[in-house]
Design a protein that fits this description.
Length: 162
């Protein structure tokens, strides 16, 4: 094939590569968002990531409850740079927390505190896990608003796609 004819065939292809699928100069391929690249995964006991995420969550819960806590984890999942934790905080000696001795007393008295379970949304930023929001004892599905509010993936939270 003659050089001029080869260039005529390759030039449009080269322009597509140079522009990238998203039409951005210098990007050969459109980069998917990190949440689209991976499916949610459980972080089991023994996984080195588990204590890292839980230790990043702990200061927020200690500050909220005014006492040291450990977690009895029901769910710990990650997806890309997102983490979702469902756990029951308890005292380090294994005793249950008396939520009547916390700021939750009024909610308990009003019947709008549904037990000791906490739900937390976290995001990894600059290699550190950050607590974006958490709720303890919700009477509704508080985390259903996190995809809209924070951009969290629905799959991670066990919610249907919007």
């Amino acid at each position: 094939m003659a050089r001029s004819r080869l260039l005529a065939v390759l030039t449009p292809f080269a322009a597509v590569i140079a522009m990238g699928a998203a039409g951005q100069p210098g990007q050969a391929f459109a980069r998917q968002d990190a949440t689209e690249q991976t499916a949610p995964r459980d972080v089991p006991v023994g996984d080195p990531l588990r204590p890292v995420v839980l230790n990043a969550l702990r200061p927020a819960i200690v500050a909220d409850l005014g006492q040291p806590v450990v977690f009895v984890v029901q769910t710990l999942k990650t997806q890309g740079d997102w983490a979702f934790v469902v756990a029951r905080p308890q005292r380090p000696d294994g005793r249950e927390i008396d939520f009547r001795q916390t700021h939750y007393r009024e909610q308990i008295d009003q019947g709008v505190f549904d037990g000791p379970v906490l739900y937390a949304l976290m995001q990894r930023r600059e290699q550190r896990w950050t607590v974006l929001d958490f709720v303890i004892g919700p009477t509704d599905v508080h985390h259903a608003g996190w995809p809209e509010e924070f951009g969290a993936p629905n799959d991670l939270l066990g919610l249907p796609k919007a």
